[in-house]
User: Which sequence fits this backbone?
């Protein structure tokens, strides 16, 4: 038998583990050296002695890493040999024996999601380079009080080596134009280890390494005495509560035995009270940090609901796999109440491969049939018969879906994690609950009362009572755990509430934007930590979901930068003024066209450069990636100062800065206060040789820089990507951004479509090539380049077609806002009739006319609405102006192909008002199209003849003039001398005939004695008597004799003679 080497561990290590075992606190240990197996076994032995039991072990590592593990077959063989005496415990098989007697769970970092809800006595972290901030939170949170988190650092002789360690996440943070990563997060991580009072650095012999301030025995004992009393008091109160309910009716005493903390027990009692109230319109909001027992409390409350004979109980969550802890405590409640599986209830698991066999239904048939059914967050229509709805992790569900879920006449219990690694549910706490409070205060006219202990408040909202519960005590460890305090401070998870400022609000135009030096911000100094905490608080309060990885990205991503908007700074100020707004930006693009062409040809999508790669794949143009863009990742304004112009002020100053409008003309030396990273690293190495204790790095760089003190990057355009909502669309549209991409699939977390908008800058000639490298625009001073206009028209054409399909769920006014954002990029060219007739024929205009005159129903023109809407929104009828409401109706019915009832419901209109507005819109559109038709037909009419002059006077004027002429003629006749008609008639026959011209011509012929003037057979003027005689007794006409009838001379003479 080979003797094992004995290791004399440091006494301070033993003291720390013993005291934390009594306090139910966790220890954090960093072990240097390569003898991993020996170190883990010794520490596990010390923990076992302190707790009186062998704790389970969670061993986390990278995938395909060298992990000390044995198969079950080998362990069974070793166990058999040990029992039979064939082998003894030796140095070679000591770790195998340890694994045989200890439950060890191996987990890859990528699979850390699967260990949520589990509890272990010790956690071993191997391969630190594969750890992310989110993973660190998950695996650390699973350790129970009295256990330890062990960080193995083989091959390292100092914690300083972590500051320059290359992490696996850095490969995802690199971009083509920013390939170098500076591990600022690791540097701050090393400095932060001194904040943890339960942290020790040990060498391979488990001796203390004096790199950080450590605790001595006296300090540990003092802390032990203070916190042990608080722990005993909390446990005593829980026991007193259980004893007070010992004689209560079922199920109170049975369920109280399943509660782990006093907060949890009080929350379960409150939920039971709501379930037993009459009316069934109560809402319970349970919020807490991670590991406080929210899901367990929900499960116990549902068990009580089954006992109280609630038949239809529905539960929802982002995924059914998140309900493992919930159903576990439902069954624990059943066991406490005497329910037995198979005889009293049955469990039904999902057959969907994506759900991994998760429980989706529990059927209870003890007395009569009851169900606990899982439903998707979007299936609010299935809750018509519900009596109780349970929403687990409501902050991870889109806010519109949560509002729809709680709209029924049933009790609602919802929980959400507001602090911790799962992210902060700010949308739930800031929006939904705030709306419920305001509605209740407006209806009741009283202030909302809030009590402390477990932070409960009750208000009434439109018949629904709201009860707010908050859990603060962890179920795994006691309050005041040093590891939790360190972790929350490291990742800024303990700042869910933004500090309110009592100072006056300065005008936005007086505020200034400052560039934040990340190297100083993450150095660990007190002043920089205060600013970092304030920045992260604003970012957490403005975003729907946050993750610890956000801080790591902000720290290490080489393309990211931070700007803060501050009020005016005056001399004599002892501290920084409050931050009014925060802007996080990222430089993208700068990828050569040849590289992007090869990537797009292979159909790949590299990480980073979100906007360039997305637009390049959408518009099939590799030239987009060659331009340099600045993407605004986040804009966060202080909650007390929102909608006051501070966010817009920050955006405008940012655009001016990158347009070159804040460049200082003064000559300044940057080497005096800005050190390169190489020089700074060399300075740190020199400090390492002279200083053993790790402290925050000393630097002469300023924390904040004015925009005039820093030269901006050469940027061609600004961009932004966000979840599409109407307020955000209006905000970015006012700032001059154009939407060029909208995803066809909704985000699973927010229920919104992703939208990317672009705002080109005019500081150089490369701006015109934003979306088309071949575009040639001679006017570089225009607000929109020709290529952006071209792709704007292309986007609008696609967007119009998608509104009837994947984007039909958009609100009509939101879709209208997207269309109107492109109003300045579309050509306002009126359509010609030759083109219009192919879309709207003359017969179609007749149908529109009948509807506009209320002679036909709207269904007669339903097939024309899409064509009409397309013409109007593509600016082909520029003379038509519609109100926003009329345009919204046209979008919903014409482009989204919705029924009138659906559009009316979306716009919240009355039917009569909607029909009237729609009819007026059709009349305006019909008038414009009819004018185009008439103008085209007028071109084919005969040309105007100047000879055909229309009468210049009216009929009445013509009659009046004729009457005047008649009167004048009658007056003239009265003035003439009276002559007898007979005498006048007899003299007329002697009138000399001929006109004046004829006589002048005859006189000029010469000296002749005879003058010949042509006369007429009948006078030019006849008297009335002559006219009457002519009409009554016409003279017979003389007939001409023919030549045959003409008599001869002889006959005539003969006749005369005879």
Assistant:
């Amino acid at each position: 038998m080979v003797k094992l080497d004995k290791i004399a561990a440091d006494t301070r290590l033993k003291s720390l583990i013993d005291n934390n075992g009594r306090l139910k606190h966790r220890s954090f240990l960093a072990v240097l050296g390569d003898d991993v197996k020996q170190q883990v076994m010794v520490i596990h032995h010390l923990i076992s002695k302190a707790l009186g039991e062998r704790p389970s072990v969670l061993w986390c590592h990278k995938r395909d890493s060298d992990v000390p593990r044995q198969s079950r077959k080998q362990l069974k063989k070793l166990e058999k040999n040990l029992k039979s005496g064939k082998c003894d415990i030796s140095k070679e098989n000591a770790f195998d024996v340890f694994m045989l007697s200890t439950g060890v769970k191996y987990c890859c970092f990528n699979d850390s999601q699967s260990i949520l809800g589990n509890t272990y006595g010790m956690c071993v972290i191997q391969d630190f380079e594969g750890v992310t901030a989110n993973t660190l939170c998950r695996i650390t949170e699973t350790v129970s009080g009295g256990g330890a988190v062990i960080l193995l650092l083989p091959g390292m002789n100092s914690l300083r080596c972590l500051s320059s360690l290359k992490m696996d996440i850095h490969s995802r943070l690199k971009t083509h134009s920013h390939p170098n990563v500076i591990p600022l997060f690791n540097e701050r991580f090393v400095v932060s280890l001194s904040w943890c009072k339960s942290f020790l650095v040990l060498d391979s012999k488990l001796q203390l390494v004096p790199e950080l301030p450590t605790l001595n025995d006296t300090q540990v004992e003092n802390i032990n005495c203070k916190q042990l009393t608080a722990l005993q008091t909390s446990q005593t109160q829980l026991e007193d509560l259980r004893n007070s309910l010992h004689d209560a009716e079922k199920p109170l005493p049975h369920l109280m035995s399943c509660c782990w903390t006093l907060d949890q027990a009080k929350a379960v009692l409150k939920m039971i009270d709501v379930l037993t109230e009459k009316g069934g319109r109560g809402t319970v909001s349970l919020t807490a940090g991670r590991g406080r027992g929210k899901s367990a409390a929900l499960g116990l409350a549902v068990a009580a609901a089954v006992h109280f004979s609630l038949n239809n109980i529905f539960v929802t969550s982002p995924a059914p796999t998140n309900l493992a802890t919930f159903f576990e405590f439902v069954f624990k409640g059943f066991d406490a109440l005497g329910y037995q599986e198979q005889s009293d209830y049955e469990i039904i698991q999902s057959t969907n491969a994506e759900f991994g066999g998760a429980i989706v239904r529990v059927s209870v048939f003890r007395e009569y049939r009851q169900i606990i059914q899982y439903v998707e967050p979007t299936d609010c229509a299935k809750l018509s018969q519900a009596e109780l709805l349970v929403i687990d992790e409501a902050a991870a569900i889109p806010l519109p879906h949560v509002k729809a879920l709680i709209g029924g006449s049933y009790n609602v219990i919802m929980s959400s994690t507001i602090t911790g690694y799962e992210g902060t549910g700010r949308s739930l706490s800031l929006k939904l609950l705030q709306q419920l409070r305001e509605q209740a205060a407006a209806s009741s006219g009283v202030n909302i009362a809030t009590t402390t202990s477990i932070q409960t408040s009750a208000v009434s909202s439109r018949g629904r009572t709201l009860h707010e519960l908050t859990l603060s005590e962890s179920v795994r460890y006691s309050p005041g755990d040093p590891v939790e305090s360190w972790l929350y401070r490291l990742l800024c998870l303990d700042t869910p509430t933004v500090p309110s400022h009592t100072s006056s609000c300065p005008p936005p135009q007086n505020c200034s934007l400052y560039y934040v030096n990340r190297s100083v911000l993450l150095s660990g100094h007190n002043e920089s930590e205060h600013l970092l905490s304030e920045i992260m608080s604003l970012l957490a309060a403005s975003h729907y979901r946050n993750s610890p990885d956000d801080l790591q990205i902000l720290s290490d991503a080489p393309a990211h930068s931070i700007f803060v908007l501050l009020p005016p700074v005056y001399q004599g100020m002892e501290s920084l003024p409050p931050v009014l707004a925060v802007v996080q930006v990222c430089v993208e693009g700068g990828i050569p066209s040849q590289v992007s062409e090869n990537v797009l040809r292979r159909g790949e999508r590299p990480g980073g450069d979100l906007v360039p790669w997305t637009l390049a794949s959408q518009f099939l143009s590799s030239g987009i990636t060659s331009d340099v863009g600045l993407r605004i990742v986040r804009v966060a304004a202080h909650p007390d100062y929102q909608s006051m112009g501070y966010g817009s002020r920050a955006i405008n100053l940012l655009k001016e800065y990158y347009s070159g409008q804040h460049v200082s003309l003064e000559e300044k030396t940057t080497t005096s206060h800005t050190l390169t990273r190489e020089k700074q690293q060399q300075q740190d190495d020199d400090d390492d040789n002279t200083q053993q204790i790790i402290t925050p790095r000393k630097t002469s760089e300023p924390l904040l820089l004015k925009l005039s003190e820093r030269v901006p990057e050469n940027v061609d355009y600004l961009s932004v990507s966000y979840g599409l909502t109407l307020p955000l669309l209006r905000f970015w549209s006012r700032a001059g951004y154009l939407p060029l991409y909208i995803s066809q699939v909704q985000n699973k977390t927010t229920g919104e479509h992703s939208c990317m908008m672009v705002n080109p800058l005019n500081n150089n000639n490369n701006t015109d090539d934003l979306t088309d490298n071949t575009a040639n625009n001679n006017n570089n001073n225009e607000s929109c380049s020709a290529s952006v206009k071209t792709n704007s028209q292309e986007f609008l054409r696609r967007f119009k077609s998608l509104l009837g399909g994947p984007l039909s769920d958009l609100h009509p006014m939101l879709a209208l806002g997207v269309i109107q954002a492109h109003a300045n990029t579309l050509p306002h060219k009126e359509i010609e009739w030759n083109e219009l007739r192919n879309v709207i024929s003359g017969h179609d205009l007749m149908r529109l006319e009948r509807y506009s005159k209320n002679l036909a129903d709207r269904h007669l023109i339903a097939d024309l609405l899409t064509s009409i809407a397309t013409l109007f929104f593509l600016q082909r009828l520029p003379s038509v102006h519609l109100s926003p409401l009329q345009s919204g109706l046209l979008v919903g019915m014409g482009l989204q192909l919705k029924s009138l009832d659906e559009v009316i419901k979306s716009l919240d209109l009355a039917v009569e008002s909607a029909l009237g507005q729609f009819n007026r819109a059709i009349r305006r559109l019909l008038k414009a199209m009819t004018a185009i038709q008439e103008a085209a037909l007028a071109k084919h009419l005969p040309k105007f003849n100047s000879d055909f002059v229309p009468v210049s006077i009216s009929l009445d004027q013509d009659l009046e003039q004729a009457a005047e002429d008649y009167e004048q003629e009658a007056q003239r006749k009265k003035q003439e001398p009276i002559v007898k008609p007979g005498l006048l008639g007899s003299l007329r026959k002697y009138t000399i005939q001929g006109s004046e011209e004829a006589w002048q011509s005859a006189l000029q012929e010469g000296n002749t004695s005879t003058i010949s003037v042509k006369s007429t057979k009948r006078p030019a003027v006849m008297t009335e008597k002559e006219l009457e005689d002519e009409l009554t007794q016409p003279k017979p006409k003389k007939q001409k004799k023919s030549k045959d009838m003409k008599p001869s001379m002889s006959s005539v003479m003969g006749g005369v003679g005879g």
